[in-house]
From TrEMBL:
Entries under InterPro entries matching the protein: MFS_trans_sf
Protein name from the UniProt record: MFS transporter
Protein source organism: Amycolatopsis deserti
Length: 62
C-alpha cells in the first residue's frame, strides 16, 4: 500500500511539469493558466478536505 501511495503521488506531482507543455499545446491554453488551474484544484482540495473528512467521520463513507 505504501509504495503504491508514494508512486501515485509522485506521478501526480512530478509528471505534471513534464506534461504541462503538451497539455498547453493540445488545449491552446497558456502554461501559466494550466499551472494556475492545477494549483487552484489543490487549493480547493485542501479547503474542502477537512469538512468532508469530518462529515465522513460522523456519517461514515457509505
Amino acid at each position: 500500500m505504501t509504495v503504491t501511495e508514494i508512486t501515485s503521488w509522485g506521478v501526480l506531482y512530478y509528471a505534471f511539469p513534464v506534461l504541462a507543455t503538451d497539455i498547453a499545446k493540445a488545449t491552446g491554453w497558456s502554461p501559466t493558466w494550466i499551472t494556475a488551474g492545477s494549483s487552484a484544484g489543490q487549493l480547493v482540495a485542501a479547503l474542502t478536505g477537512i469538512p468532508v473528512g469530518r462529515w465522513l467521520d460522523r456519517h461514515g463513507p457509505r
